[in-house]
Design goal:
- The chain has 142 residues and is α+β, with helices and mostly antiparallel strands.
- The protein is built from four helices and four strands; from the N terminus they run αββααββα.
- Strands 1-2-4-3 form a four-stranded antiparallel beta sheet.
- Strand 3 and strand 4 form a beta hairpin.
Length: 142
């Protein structure tokens, strides 16, 4: 087991290393849609790249989720065949959101032997998500 400090240091080292290994400006850092964002996640069991719709206004959240759901076949067939759609997803803090994500299991941020494959997964998945979003941005925002 790792102490909180050791775990925090490893996480920091991973993300710094990821930034150095794959230096690029992520165009989707800011989608310009409130409560609609792309995120990276990596813990002791899995890694994922997610598109989170976190709007507290349920109608707005449903609106954006339904737009993305209408594009599901395009996303899966042309960009990310392993994408998972979740209209109701609970974060660790109990907050309910909608999420579309791609998951990589059996990797661990505490195991440096899984870092390279995780970095490649995060990079490749984000590139595909960016391509999808850029291709359909006008429709999603309308």
């Amino acid at each position: 087991m790792y102490s909180k400090e050791a775990s925090k240091a490893l996480r920091k080292e991973f993300w710094i290393s990821f930034g150095k290994s794959f230096p690029r400006k992520w165009i989707l850092y800011n989608t310009k849609i409130k409560n609609f964002s792309f995120k990276f996640y990596f813990d002791t069991k899995k890694a994922l790249v997610a598109l989170d719709i976190e709007d507290p206004d349920l109608e707005k959240r449903i609106h954006y989720y339904e737009k993305l759901e209408s594009l599901k076949s395009a996303l899966i067939e042309n960009y990310l065949p392993d994408a998972i759609y979740s209209d109701i997803y609970f974060l660790e803090n109990g907050k309910e959101i909608s999420r579309i994500y791609v998951l990589k299991e059996n990797v661990c941020i505490h195991n440096k032997n899984t870092w390279q494959e995780t970095m490649q997964f995060l990079n490749e998945t984000m590139i595909k998500f960016e391509e999808f979003y850029t291709d359909f941005e006008y429709f999603i925002k309308s």
